[in-house]
Amino acid sequence: MGKTNMTIIYHNKSCSKSCSALEVLKQSGKPFEIIEYLADVPTVEELKVIVNKLQCRPHDLIRTNEKIYIAQFKGKDLTDEESILAMHENPILIQRPIIVDGNQAMVARTPEALASIHKS
């Protein structure tokens, strides 16, 4: 999952919130790595590490409004392993943008989360 001492953004260039977070990272002046996760899909192990750093359940990281989720998973009580596998097999389901900085991570979708990027 990239270099451990560098900030990483899991980025979707088609997402305005992801582009906003990327711009904030650029302005911060800190070195960072961009992972376009739709093309460079995180492994199951990488997803487990991200979930652990986010301190959430895997299902909390799933975009439940995506068509593929509604068609294949809605109404099912997915286990943590099934949720991680669903994200790995269908990366469009992964919330974005995710910023990993050392042992911490955040889904930087809100103005508050974006503001905290400068502070870290």
Overview of this structure, please?
- With about 120 residues, the protein is α+β, with helices and mostly antiparallel strands.
- The chain has a single domain (about 5-120), classed as Glutaredoxin.
- It contains five helices and four strands, in the order βαβαααββα.
- Strand 3 (about 100) and strand 4 (about 105) form a beta hairpin.
- Helix 1 runs parallel beside helix 5.
- The longest helix has 13 residues, at about 15-30.
- The chain starts with 6 loop residues before the first strand and ends with a helix.
Cα gyration radius (Å):
14 Å
CATH superfamily: Glutaredoxin
The average pLDDT score comes to 91
| Spatial separation of the terminal alpha carbons | 20 Å
* Strands, count: 4
Total of DSSP H or I helical runs spanning 4+ residues: 5
CATH architecture: 3-Layer(aba) Sandwich
CATH fold group: Glutaredoxin
Strand order of the largest sheet: 2-1-3-4
Order of helices and strands: EHEHHHEEH
Counted up, domains total 1
Largest pleated sheet = 4 strands, mixed
Strand content: 15-25%
Question: How would you sum up the global shape?
Answer: globular
Structural class: alpha+beta
**CATH class (first level) name:** Alpha Beta
Helix content: 40-55%
Task: List segments where confidence is low: pLDDT < 50 over at least 5 consecutive residues.
Answer: none
